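Class, discuss our next protein.
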Amino acid sequence: MPTRLFLIAGALLVLLLPSPAGAGAPPGGIRLDDDPFARTTYLSRCSLLRKEAVIWNCYVTRLLTDVEKANDPAHELPRIDRKVRAGGGYLQSSCHMMMHVVGRMYARKHHVTLANLQRYLPRSNDPGCSAGFGMGMVMTLGAQIGKLGPDGAVRLCLGAPTRFRSYTCIHTLGHAYMRLYHENLKYGLQACRALPARQAPDCAQGAYHDYWLGIAGHDSAKRQRSAVTTARVLCSRAIPGFVRPCWYRYFLEVPPKKSPENAAGIRGLCAGLSGAQRGGCIAAASLVTSPDPFSQLRVCGRLRGADSVSCLYGLNVQNLAQAPGSRRVKLIDGCSKLGANARTGCYQWLGTALAVVTNGRFANRACPFISAPGRGPCLTGARRMNDALVSFS
């Protein structure tokens, strides 16, 4: 593989699933447990300020200063990750988003290109600050990424060391195509549709995500003139395989007036929809109910039939990636509490999702040991880990 391909591979494959936010301003939809006024030990002066936008900009400025001062982002970012985790609070929950801004500013100032990118990439797979910084830098290289072509880009992503990273890489391509085509959704989706069927929906989720970022005014994504601003309209125009990707991050970037905290809230957001549109809406609403997959599963259990299964696609399974294996087994065992017509779908989807975050180990180390009715569906789902995930977090 040419040197250039290796360099961009490194850029894309170190990125974990992004949660982009605004450039120069905090994102919308801050959760109550992400208190911007919570004290932290690292960069603690910023937490002494009172207005959220001022706090956000203080952190971005100070983070950039620390990265610049070290003159070695590849090794400084992992150190920042450790400091931020130790301090916790608002900074920990927002560092990935802040580092999108920092990474872009750094890349432009230091003229980062594909030829020298490897020098700056964080030596870390941490999904927080390091991943955000890498993602921000890559966003400035959209034109160069486009020159790889769909075949070259897919080869890079499929060469990732884990299934989780290959999925994330494909998702990132959707973002990159949107930036390359100046947020023109038609061309961004055409680029995704040029990929094989196993990758196209996950690329499309990244493209739609970038579209909703533009609608929300987040992460420097541009809003097109005469843009459709609601998922009910936009997603009704999507091809069948792209309906759920279209909906998936809509409520995350364009929060509803009242956040759905229970089954009634989810049903209210999706009232009047049916079929694939309702399924996509239910998954999108489920995604923002809670960061805790156990709480989400309980909410899904209070829905009925197809709604209950659609809700499962919004579970924040990624949050169990570093948890003890017993926690993941406990989650999938919770499928037994769902209605009879949703249990099989639950075991299958969680079998898939948990196999992704464990790079396939869940199939052999967990599926055979869960309650008897779920073993077969769990294994079936785990074997699908390399198929299009369509929605995943």
User: Anything to note?
Assistant: Confidence is low (pLDDT under 50) at residues 1-24, 28-33.
